[in-house]
């Protein structure tokens, strides 16, 4: 059972903070620790007619990347990211 406070927070984020409109792409990026909130955000985005996409990271992954990556690796933008940005708000 989900904590009702997490459900209310998801409603506020999607309905008020984002003011999400139907058909909009919403990327939810979070550490795995916030999985309950991410699940509720996905439900609220769907209820608002949006298209949720999630990116969940495992503990330590971001730190490992940021502390070990070269400047070139830090500045690299994968091609799929460009496609996603171009489609932002216009899902196929």
Description:
With 92 residues, the protein is of the alpha+beta class. It has one domain: Thermophilic metalloprotease (M29) (Thermophilic metalloprotease-like, 3-Layer(aba) Sandwich), CATH 3.40.1830.10. Helix content is 52%, strand content 15%. It has helices at residues 4-17, 35-47, 61-68, 71-75, 79-86, and strands at 25-31, 51-57. It has a two-stranded parallel sheet. Helix 1 crosses helix 2 (35-47). The chain is flat, with a radius of gyration of 15 Å. The model has no long low-confidence stretch (mean pLDDT 89).
Observed structural traits:
15% strand; two-stranded parallel sheet; 92 residues; alpha+beta; flat; Thermophilic metalloprotease-like
Annotation field: number of helices? 5
Radius of gyration: 15 Å
CATH topology descriptor: Thermophilic metalloprotease-like
The major beta sheet can be summarized as:
2 strands, parallel
Give the averaged pLDDT, no decimals.
Answer: 89
Question: Can you tell me the CATH architecture?
Answer: 3-Layer(aba) Sandwich
Work out the number of β strands.
2
The count of domains is 1
Helix % is: 40-55%
CATH superfamily: Thermophilic metalloprotease (M29)
Helix and strand element order: HEHEHHH
User: So what's the overall shape?
Assistant: flat
What is the topology, as strand order, of the major beta sheet?
1-2
Q: What share of the residues does DSSP label as strand, in percent?
A: 15-25%
What is the CATH top level name?
Answer: Alpha Beta
Judged by helices, strands and strand pairing, the structural class is alpha+beta
């Amino acid at each position: 059972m989900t904590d009702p406070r997490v459900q209310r927070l998801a409603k506020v984020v999607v309905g008020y903070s984002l003011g999400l409109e139907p058909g909009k792409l919403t990327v939810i990026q979070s550490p795995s620790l916030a999985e309950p909130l991410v699940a509720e955000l996905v439900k609220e985005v769907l209820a608002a007619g949006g298209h949720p996409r999630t990116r969940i990271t495992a503990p330590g992954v971001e730190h490992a990347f940021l502390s070990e990556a070269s400047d070139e690796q830090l500045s690299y933008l994968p091609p799929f990211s460009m496609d996603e940005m171009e489609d932002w708000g216009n899902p196929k």
